[in-house]
Amino acid sequence: MKPAASPARRGFRCLTALYLLLFAGSAARGAQPSQPPPTIEQLFGLPEVRQPRLSPDGKKIAFLFPHERRLALGVFDRASGASRMVLKGEDESLVSFFWKGNDRLVFLADVGGNESFFIGSSDLNGRSVLRLAESQRIEDNLVGNVANILDELPGDPQRILVAGYFAENIDHAMFLGGAAVVARLNVFNRARSPVLEFKESDRNVLLLGDNLGALRVRGRLVGREVIWEHRPDDGATFREIARHPFHGYQEDWQPLAFASDNRTLWLISRQKHDRGALHAYNTATGSLGEPLFTPAEGELEDSLVTTPDRTRLLGVAYETVRRRYHWFDADRAALQTKLENTFAGSDVRITSESQDQTVKLIWVGHDREPGTYFVLDEKAGALTLFKRMRRIDPAELQPRRPVSYRARDGLLIHGYLTLPPNAAGRRVPLIVHPHGGPFGVRDSWGFDADAQFLASRGYAVLQPNYRGSGGYGRDFINRGRHQWGRAMQDDLTDGVKWVVAEGIADPARVAIYGASYGGYATLAGLTLTPELYRCGVNYVGASDLEITFKHRGDDAYREAGEFSYREEWVGPTEKYRAATSPVNFVERIGVPTLHAYGEKDPRVKIDHWTRLEAQLKKHGKVYESVSQRRQGHGFRDEKASVGFYGQLEDFLARHLAPEGTVRIGRERVVDPEPDKP
């Protein structure tokens, strides 16, 4: 006779049954009648839940949820099963939050969509709300208390560590994430205790505090070097511990966090390992230990897994085709294995846990499932459903399969391909969808709303991780240096040719669509390889490389003979950048285009669209556009976002739709100025 299953194992079994019930449709794909595709609202409306986090005692879950077309902050009581609203977004958008003790929440909000962030705190009833650090954006400059949260300080019941700007012109401070003042900020009464002050000319690559909130490490950019400095406490003088050439991405050292002794510094070193190696650095002796972990494939992520109080290192994440973990803790490794067996084929992540580690919030998702949250109560032996992010049947969606192909110079390019339903045996229209960034960013396996949206409308979607993308080591990123519109663009072109050669894509029906750098790549593709595409969609894309990053103080840095992002990574000279600026070659565009911009965008200024549209009109080009007065770098307002995708669906249906495709019915929404809720 087999022994009775433990409560924990019984809970897991019950949960397995629940999971299969929720997502049974995906298991029977192909045997079921064709499902209606998901609506735009289902895919791009506000999610039902975002960023849930357990309170330190594990009794409550705070989370963001939709309310009147904006995200509100709510709290769920696990004992009673009741939820209540704490805060709702007004003129600002709630971006993130965390617990400070069991009875107060600290939140970050964006005023007006232009990334003018401020910090606030609230009790759980929303009656005691404090605006802790505020900002205002005037043209390109941030003024007032512009605060960046450096550390939540889980060991401090009242304070957090922030970096703030208290200067009228802080272009220098903004560049590379520098700061003018570091302070411990009391979230209950706004009291600010200065820790370190900087000159306006100081430019910091990194500021790192210990577990008690003392600022221990900083990286300063001096000329073309990063000087790493350390001090044992707040009152001491910083001393140099290392210096390395400044790269702009993936530096030789990447300090992550202090161990519980506040002397051992965990960091990623790339001096000997292109994909990164995790080390422990002893700040007392100045010695760098042997690698704790070096991934055999993929790239080390800058996220450690520790206990909630950060006293113990449990593991580290690294990226391959999918996200993986290397565990230093045997119990956590065993739990991860059990969860992955329970949710076979899915990504499983512990996103939050109680201070005593007995209650955990589990996120489960895959390429056809946006994500579902479960609560694991190890004392009770129960694994229960909390909330699904979106109510979409996985049976309506398509697999995103990893692919690879060779670029013209032999470099192996990885990416993801999503095919429309019933694509087997026929050529289908193709949309190349390059990611933004561009450097250090990548597309990863998992749910992608754009890919699923386009595939459900009958298009194959190729998402290449072109050179310069993250996840493949520093050398791969460096191959993208000065390759805007050149080899980075060739990688996209070669991807199109590969999909065509595989017999998947119809070469006469290829489009390109991207946002941010992906928008630039769209414009570059339409002007540099106009014969390749039948239409293009540019979403907040840069059109003129001469004004790209100019608002971040690049000109001042160049004049000082120091590092200029635009010159080091985009193009070394004005002539060089002009040769790959799409705005200068609009006459080559021979197909219809769609363009979308936010007038409050601090990254890709509206000047990019103003200049581009003038050239489109000058050369008599066929184009459509939407310009949102209240939006920034991407449309966060639900009405604006849904309206854009409705316009995108309509545009593609008219210019690229598969033969015999019937467009999904919905009212086209073109609203240049969405009303406030």
Properties at a glance:
single chain, 677 residues, alpha+beta, Rossmann fold, 8-stranded mixed beta sheet, 4-stranded antiparallel beta sheet, disordered N terminus, disordered C terminus
Cα shape: globular
Structural class determined from secondary elements: alpha+beta
- Uncertain segments of ≥5 residues (pLDDT<50)? 1-11, 24-33, 138-145, 166-178, 553-561, 660-677
* Fold-level CATH name of the domain at 394-545 and 580-655: Rossmann fold
Q: What kind of sheet is the major sheet?
A: 8 strands, mixed
In percent terms, what proportion of residues is strand? 35-45%
Oligomer: single chain
Rg from Cα:
25 Å
Mean pLDDT: 86
Side-by-side strand order of the widest sheet: 30-31-33-32-34-35-36-37
Counting DSSP H or I runs of 4 or more residues, the number of helices is 14
Helix content estimate: 10-25%
**In CATH's first tier, which class of the domain at 394-545 and 580-655 applies?**
Alpha Beta
Straight-line N-to-C gap: 63 Å
Quantity of strands, as a count: 37
Name the CATH superfamily assignment of the domain at 394-545 and 580-655.
Alpha/Beta hydrolase fold, catalytic domain
Any guess at the CATH architecture of the domain at 394-545 and 580-655?
A: 3-Layer(aba) Sandwich
Summarize the structure.
The protein is α+β, with helices and mostly antiparallel strands. The protein has 14 helices and 37 strands. The strands form nine sheets. An eight-stranded mixed β-sheet has the order 30-31-33-32-34-35-36-37, sandwiched between helices.
